[in-house]
Amino acid sequence: MDKGKNATVFMKSSNNKIYMELKDIIREHALQFLPAKSLLRCRGVCRDWKYLIATPFFVHNQSYSFRNLSGFFSQSSTSEPSFISLNPIAYGVPDPSLSFLPEPVDIRSSSNGLLCCQGHSGYNPYYICNPATKHWHKLPKPNNDHGSDPAVVLIFEPSILNFAAEYKLVCAFPSELDGYEFEIFSSCDKSWKTSGEIFLGNLKILPRSGVYTNGIVYWAGRNNRILAFDLSAERSQIHNGHGTLGVMDGKFCTASILRQNLSVQLLSNAYANTMQMYSNIKAWESHLFTLDRSVFAEGYPEEVSLLVNDTVILRKGKALYSYNLKAKETKHLGNESDDGKRRVVPYVNSLVDI
After folding, report:
1. Which of 199, 206, 151, 207 minimizes the C-alpha distance to 178?
2. Contact criterion met (CB below 8 Å) for 198 and 217
């Protein structure tokens, strides 16, 4: 009888040891790869996890480790923002309308968990916020007039070495010299700087089309032209291309609907326009993805709203769909309201602190 009791005690002790080891493994090697919404639920598992998730060191690691597209914010010119999650169980924000900001705003851009919004009062200030934590900063007034619908692009690249969330906001604004100039806000300097670069040419860019990758900001322009601005060299150039601008495999690309196909053009050489004539190096790589018509109500999608890495957001009427480039799977996300065409802005469910 005593031997049986001792065996039971031994088994219980062994199970507890295994449980503690697994718990430690999850805490040290898995939690940081989870999205913000899931982590808020994980705080209820035990006191150790609750305190860990609240530490600046963990917040920093999570913002560096978790980069998955979690969903997108949607807003029309007459409505407040709303959020559509790619996985409502895992991804989400506590206040999709962003009512925690001091005034109503228009969402202008996003980058790795941060949003750039613009207020309606005074000089229409820019706000940088994290909708998962409701933390925000108000930027100082720019030195130049950015216009009523500014072409701004937010740039935040998490670094394992920098605990502070260092970001930049780049605006291409019309120049008095019949072209575009560039003004840059740096969170490190806490100030705006006007670049010495001026793009001269007959080009009209689309304000809310900008994307950033590999040190270069791109804006779509009319007549199938794209304006590129190298942030480090502060030099601009023009590319020919059409469609919605995006990023795939870490490279700049354009995407459009071509009959029953999704056409993606990947820019393989960002500096192809500076190469000598008759070079054999191709600037663009073409990729074609056949869409399954049975997924859509009738016909095929009318346009591409967003392309971020493996995920494409397609629009057909008021219906929105996500398409995974690797799995070749299409999912209906829901329908837009009838208050006007909405623009979508990608979002990563990060704990990044600002």
Report:
1. 199
2. no
Amino acid at 169: L
CB 252 within 8 A of CB 239: no
Q: Which residues pair with 192 in a beta bridge?
A: 185
What percent helix, strand, coil does the chain show, rounded to 5?
A: 20, 40, 40
- Rounded to whole angstroms, the Cα distance separating 156 from 165 reads 7
What amino acid is encoded at 237 in this protein?
Answer: Q
**CA 252 – CA 208 distance, rounded (Å):** 16
Backbone torsions φ then ψ of 88, nearest 5 degrees:
-60, -25
Q: Are 170 and 184 in contact (CB under 8 A)?
A: yes
One-letter amino acid for residue 201 of the chain = G
d(CA 157, CA 340): 33
User: pLDDT digits over 103-151, tens only?
Assistant: 999 999 999 999 999 999 999 999 999 999 999 999 999 999 999 999 9
- The CA distance from 122 to 128, in Å, is 17
Q: Is the pTM of this model over 0.85?
A: yes
Q: Which pair of tokens denotes residue 119?
A: 């207020």
Report how far Cα 236 is from the mean position of its chain's Cα atoms: 23
DSSP string, 181-243: EEEEEETTTTEEEEEEEEEESS--B-GGG-EEETTEEEEEETTTEEEEEETTTTEEEEEE--S
Q: Which residues of the chain have pLDDT under 70?
A: 1-20, 271-281, 338-340
Q: How far apart are CA 123 and CA 112, in angstroms?
A: 27
Question: What is the token pair recorded at 183?
Answer: 């003004």
**Cα–Cα distance for residue pair 146/172, rounded to 1 Å:** 8
Among residues 151, 236, 150, 230, the alpha carbon closest in space to that of 198 is found at 236
Q: What's residue 25's pLDDT?
A: 81
The type of residue at 17 is K
C-alpha 238, offset from chain centre = 24
Strand-pair partners of 112: none
Report whether 316 contacts 299 (CB < 8 A): yes
